[in-house]
Amino acid sequence: MPIEFTTDQVIFRDIASVEEAESLLEWLQTTPQAKINLAACTHLHTANLQVLMAARPVIAVWPENIELRAWLKAALEPALEGSLNGNDDSHSR
Amino acid sequence: MNPLLEQFLSEAREFSEGIGNKLMQLENEPSDQDAINELFRLVHTLKGNSGLFTFPEMTRVLHAGEDLLGMVRDERIAYSRKLADCLLDAMDFVMALCEEIEETGVISSHHSQATERITDALLALMPALPDTAATDTAAKADRVTFATGPDVLLPLAGVPIATRMEALRHIEVGDPVYWIAYTPVKECFFQGDDPLHMARQVPGLLWGTVRPTQPMPPLAELDTYSCALEFHLLATASGEELAELFRYVSDQVKIVKVDLLWRAIPEDGPACAAKVEPIEIPSIVSEEESSALEAILSAQRQILGLDDQPAWKAGRTRAVAAVLRNLSQGLGLEAAASDIEEALSASLAAGHGAPLLQWMEKHRENLAHSPKQSESAMTSNGLPAQEAATSSMPAGETATPAADESIKFGRRAEDAVNGPRSLKVDQAKIDLLMNLIGELVVEKNALPYLAQRAEAQYGVRELSREIKAKYSVINRIADEMQYAIMQVRMMAVSVVFQRFPRLVRDISRKLGKEVQLVLEGEQTEADKNIIESLADPLIHIVRNSLDHGLETPEVRRASGKPEAGTLTIRAAQEADRVVIEIIDDGKGIDPIVIKRKAYEKGLIDEATLERIDDQEAVNLIFAAGLSTAAVVSDLSGRGVGMDVVRSAVDKMNGTVMVNSELGKGTKIRISLPLSMAVTQVMIVESDRQLFGIPLDHVIETVRVAKTAIRFIKQSMTAVLRGRVVPLKAINGLLGISAHAKANADDEFAVLLVQVGGEVLGLVVDSFRETIGVIQKPLGGFLSGLSAYSGSALMGDGSVLMILNIRELV
Q: Residue B228 and residue A68: Cβ atoms within 8 Å?
């Protein structure tokens, strides 16, 4: 499984495909305190990214893949985005 | 015109005909899914092909059409007449564009309004779906758009300063930097797209971000499979690479070339402006410009260094100063510009160029590496900086052709399902072949004469026999060749017929009539020239039938006919002629009305009015200037039409007849030769000259005793087979002063010919054989002689003049 769900953590490995998005969403809905471990992740499908962006869980470990990390940080860390994401932030939390 | 374009135009014509046909087919069976698919494929391919060239107008219209058909195919909207109207309009427009391209090689800009109108009409037919905006953009720019200009303000403020600095460094050294805004469509996940993956594939990525297109909904409402993200990227890569990468989502991306001007664009708020400020970097005269500058400066130096003393030296010095002044102003060196005045006056006073040269030395550094404001100064002066020039192409209109082609080539490969089944040959080549074979046929006819001479003149019977044997072989081959080439020239009448469904539909709708068109015998073949010259007469006849013949549904119902009238166009081959019948079940032609009209217009006199029978009266519709329509419409009623038909048919050596039954309908029958290439002519002799008379006209040859000829005033007549036949001497008609010769029994040779339904006797000296000839039109001065329809070469090399009987009598 590219995505492994534990009690409060979800671990991404290799490539997370579009099929994972649905279960990820469900899991995040039921586990609001969830932490995300992306260390071994090399790519995740946009659908997954979108779920993460909507849920804004705590990212415990960023991916080791530098390029992916940059992308995810840009998407998930509002600080880098400047003022643009400020509103979304308050909305989703 | 390059071969690719030529091919495109010829294909476009085929496609547009195909599209028209499919639309007609759908008119009858709106739910025919195969036809819709085929239609979609045609439009799609044509659009793809048009994208190979820079015809944005055409591509846009076709794209809108494709989108619309895509919706019809997916059953999101139903096929309707209105839709067909719009699409037909669009195809007409595309064909008009094609014709223009064929003539001038380009599409002139005045079509843009029509493009707008047609595209809008097509788009208006689409239901207002939430993604209409996306479709719209797609329609307006189906390609990777290289947009630029003041309307695209780049949100560069979101880009970290370090990245921006890096980007600018790339621009400085001449690497292209692109801003990519990629907004995937909602359904993209279902189409197998992974936008993030795509973004990660971007070559030379400098920076990228992803963000929601709108505030993220609460988790419970989130639709996992609907993409609501957008990507912003900054990359240094070639336009081609980017276009290649994004080719399948070309409607979803906007690619903007970033150049130095962007730093000058004020962004919202002083905070942003402040952020932008620090990236100002020392500039920037591109390599090209600096080499140009160098060239200008060295030229001035050279001029100033000349030590001759021409009378115009002062003027020359002033010119140099003016060049330098403009140059420094253009580069924003105001101080240097004011200095130059002093240098100029010093130079003029001294009578040599030294002070100006000194000025150039002094400002040399500045001129070579002009200061930073130069860029903006040049641009604001309207002098195009290199970047500005590249990026000032109108958005979506003139994308980098190379990038564009690479995309479309990809699509072409997918679309090319069918290889060409037939060979396209220029008609001129076939005509040449035809002429050569014609010559061969004529030349071969000289062989029997040669054989004769060999025997009679030189007495070598053996040789004569051999020549004859060879002749029979050559004769067979030549005949087969002629037959083969005629087959090549044969075309099915469907070429002409296929335009009728559209024509009938348009006209009947305009007239508010219901018409069912039946086409029969479309596979009947005839020579290309015949088929082509058939088009106009047929259109006239069909128009007439629709306008005058068929009644409106109300009238039809009242007279107990089915509401929809039937118009049948039937082609068939009868012996060596092709017969075309146009039959309608309309109100028919009233011979009394025609007679009266013809009399009113002075086409017939009172005696004729009394004499002619109904059949003859009906045939009066072919007389010039007759129109029975009460009101002149744009379709018919101007009194031209049927006479045009007759003259066109006459020109092809054909005949046209009309049969009509009042209240039941009309049948018009056109009979044409299968081929115009070989004409059977009868040779007659008069005053020791030979003339050919087309066999089509000849009824019979008779001998008339001198005593049987009677004179009525000046005219000769004779009673033949119980009817009075006017006789005319061919010598008299051709202006030959000799009299016709009678034979030993005091009988004249009379050739009975039929001219426009009338029988006439031509008095000649004697009859000869009938032969098949290849008729050549008369050229030059001779073409004005209407008495001859052409000339032909005979086997012995002499020229035979073919008489044009219709003109002659």
A: no
Residues of B in contact with A28 (CB under 8 A): 219
Top pLDDT among B459 and B334 is at: B459
Integer Rg of chain A from CA: 12
CB B644 within 8 A of CB B536: yes
Greater confidence (B724 vs B146) lies with B724
The answer to whether residues B676 and B653 touch, using CB atoms and an 8 Å cutoff, is: yes
Give chain A positions within 8 Å (CB) of B228. 50
Interface A–B counts its CB contacts (< 8 A) at 90
Residue A54 to residue B216, Cβ atoms within 8 A: yes
Residue B560 forms contact with A (CB below 8 Å): no
- Computed on alpha carbons and rounded to an integer, the radius of gyration of chain B in Å comes to 40
pLDDT in tens, B66-93: 888 888 888 788 888 888 888 888 888 8
List the single residue in A81, A82, A92 with the smallest CB-CB distance to B216: A92
Domains of chain A and any CATH numbers: 3-88 (3.30.750)
What pLDDT was estimated at residue B260?
A: 56
B678-808: CATH topology = OB fold (Dihydrolipoamide Acetyltransferase, E2P) (2.40.50)
What's B121's DSSP letter?
A: H
If residue B703 lies in a helix (H) or strand (E), which one and from where to where?
strand B698-705
Contacts 24+ apart (CB under 8 A), B35-39: B36/B69, B36/B72, B36/B73, B36/B79, B37/B73, B39/B69
> Which pLDDT tens digit goes with each residue over B646-660?
888 877 778 888 888
CATH architecture under which domain B145-279 falls:
2-Layer Sandwich (3.30)
Distance from CA of B193 to the nearest CA of A (A): 9
**What backbone torsions phi and psi does residue B792 show, to the nearest 5 degrees?**
-145, 155
| Contact between residue B337 and residue B363 where contact means Cβ atoms under 8 Å apart | no
Question: For residue B790, what are the β-bridge partners?
Answer: B802
- Is the complex ipTM more than 0.90? no
* Spatial CA neighbour of B618 closest among B594, B583, B585, B650: B594
CB contact under 8 A, A68 and B200: yes
Residue B392's alpha-carbon distances to A83, B25, B322, B599, in angstroms, are 31, 46, 30, 70
pLDDT at B327 > cutoff 80: no
Task: Report the chain B residue with the minimal C-alpha distance to residue A68.
Answer: B200
* pLDDT, tens digit (0-9, with 9 covering 90-100), for B98-150: 888 888 877 776 777 788 888 888 888 777 544 444 444 433 334 444 544 44
| Sign of the CA dihedral with B144 first, then B149, B151, and B152 last | positive
Q: Please tell me which residue of chain A has the smallest CA distance to B160.
A: A80
DSSP annotation of B550 reads S
A29 contacts chain B (CB < 8 A): yes
The CATH class of the B495-673 domain is alpha beta
Inter-chain residue contact A85 with B216, CB threshold 8 Å: no
* C-alpha distance from residue B734 to each of B715, B725, B728, B767 (Å): 16, 20, 11, 17
Give contacts of A 36-55 with B, CB under 8 A. 43-47, 49-51, 53-55
Residues B194, A45: C-beta atoms closer than 8 Å: yes
Interchain contact B157–A (C-beta under 8 A)? yes
Task: Tell me the pLDDT tens digit for each residue of B27-54.
Answer: 778 778 888 888 888 888 888 788 777 7
Distance from CA of B140 to the nearest CA of A (A): 27
Beta-sheet pairing, A3-5 with A9-16: antiparallel
Q: Do A54 and B227 count as a contact with CB atoms less than 8 A apart?
A: no
From B190's Cα to the closest Cα of chain A, the distance in A is 10
Report the DSSP pairing between strands B788-793 and A58-61: unpaired
CATH of B3-140, one of 3.40.190.10, 2.40.40.10, 3.90.226.10, 1.20.120.160: 1.20.120.160
Mean pLDDT of B743-760: 85
